[in-house]
Structure formats: C-alpha cells, structure tokens
Amino acid sequence: MGKKVAVVLAGCGVYDGSEIHESSAVLVHLSREGAQAEVYAPDVDQMHVVDHVKGQPTQEKRNVLVESARIARGNIKDLAKLDVKGLDALIIPGGFGVAKNLSTWATQGKNCIISKEVEDVLKAFHAAKKPIGLCCISPVLAAKIFPGCELTVGHDTECEKWPYAKTAETMKELGCKHVNKHVTEIHVDVKNKLVTTSAFMCNAPIHEIYDGIGKMVKEVVRLA
C-alpha cells in the first residue's frame, strides 16, 4: 500500500490562500511517488479576499475550506477531523493563506499566533515522529512551533531573485537555524523530520519551483 499523506491547504490563490501551482505540484509529485493524498483545510473565514488582478483586498467574504475544495476537486475534509494515526506524513504548501489564514504571520511576523487546529496537527505529526514537508512561506509555522529546528526558505540576503529573504532573518530570531538553499534544493532536519524548500520565495522559472517541490515530496515519502 502507498503512503497516506495529509496535505493541508489555506484557501485558493497566492495572495489570500494556498499557492495553486505549489499545491498542484505537491499532489502531482505525491501521485508520482505512489502516495495517496488526503486533503484538509480549516473550516474558517479567510482573513480577507484579494482581487488577484489588482492585488488589492475586496469586501468579499470567503471560507478557507470551501475555497481549498477548488484545488482538491471537492475531495477535501475539515482539518478538525484529521487523525494522525491513519496518516504517514504531512505536507503544507505555501501561499499567503499560510500567513493569513493558518497563522497571523502576515500581520505579526515572529510574534504571530498559529491557528490552534494547525498547531495541534503539526505537533501531533512531530510527536509521532512522522515527516513534515513545508515549502515557500509555510516553514514559518515550524519556526514558531519547534524552536531550534533547521529550515530553509531559500536565501537570507534580499535581492531581485530573493525578494522575501527577510523571512529567513525573522526565523533566525525565533531561534531556528536557517540554511541557504537554491530553489531546486531541499533541506532536511533529520532530528525533527522536517523537509523544506523555498518554492515561490524565489523569483525563479516555474519548472525549477516544481522540481524543488518534487525533491521535497520524494524525501517526505521516503522518510515515511
């Protein structure tokens, strides 16, 4: 039997939910590895809704679970119903929804609060010594919950290629070890079974982002 991997989404769309290309890449690579994805999302309102043409918030209200169901093709469960016992690993794609709907990182940075459901799930997989894969901005969740862990969000020096590099500095302030990696590379924290890759934290061609996520997924499945 293939490994069963929980994939936790945060909505649908880079600016207010899960990054669609990252989420799709995770699902494609899990399929390629012969793993079975079980998709979950919290049944909560989004922090806000962003018009992805204008890049500006709107007055609209949307639900994280309902929006995530678009990516999951309707095959999704409420995060409150996740049972770590029947699962082998956890993966959380990136997108601003991680920093807005799964946590308050977008507004509070290192002083953020992680949603209780999300924190409970991450701690349950960690306690069960089951691997956790995180890409793009989602490693900040582990930075907040697992002090001293090793992670990558790419590079720690801001430039045109790495526009979000200050995230790495903030993670270091939380007591984490940040490891600089190229977009096609991963970092494995062996002790904590955390596998991270930068994805769209890097201004890179989409196939390189896809390849980096592929390596992350492959290692998560191997560790499971």
From TrEMBL:
Record PANTHER family: ES1 PROTEIN HOMOLOG, MITOCHONDRIAL
Organism annotation: Stercorarius parasiticus
Protein name, UniProt field: GAL3A protein
Superkingdom per UniProt: Eukaryota
